[in-house]
Amino acid sequence: MTTATILIVDDDVDTRLLVSAQLRKYRYRALCAADASEAIAVVQKTRPDAIILDLGLPGDDGFNVIKQLKADAALAGIPVIILTADEVSEVERTGLGSGAAALLHKPARAEVLLAAITNVLGPSGRASGEGAAATAMNDESRRPRGAPGAPDSEREDIEP
After folding, report:
1. Mind listing the pLDDT tens digit for each residue in 39-73?
2. What are the structural domains, with CATH classification, of the chain?
3. Best label site of 68, 98, 151, 155, fewest CB within 10 Å?
4. How many whole angstroms separate alpha carbon 52 and alpha carbon 13?
5. DSSP strand E in 10-140: where?
6. Are 43 and 61 contacting, i.e. CB atoms less than 8 angstroms apart?
7. How many CB atoms lie within 10 A of CB 156?
């Protein structure tokens, strides 16, 4: 089975590092983007199997990223998991209504994040292209640093 590629989109470097380390621990390939425009560029270039998306991004918000993805037939089937510090009850309806496959609240425990990824990717470990049932939950590339989609660091000292 090929390792699934997950794009992490968050303007907070610590969140990107932590989530990336959690994903690598479970043998996922992690790509990173710090803002909406970088996220769209990485998605168009790499076609990840799933996206973990923060809503509060510089330049544009996560909802507009989802809207752009869903408007492109080649990208519309990529499942998006919203990972937000916002109050879940405030964004749940909007997030899931916008086409997100799942909604998690920061900080999400590693097992909760893994369960959401497993749910959206299905038993094959790869996105089906049809999206997954919406779920609300509470609670690497080796590219050069700075390249679109490259992880912020190869640090292994981050605890999941």
Report:
1. 999 999 999 999 999 988 888 888 889 999 999 99
2. 5-130 (3.40.50.2300)
3. 155
4. 14
5. 29-33, 50-53, 80-84, 102-105, 135-136
6. no
7. 8
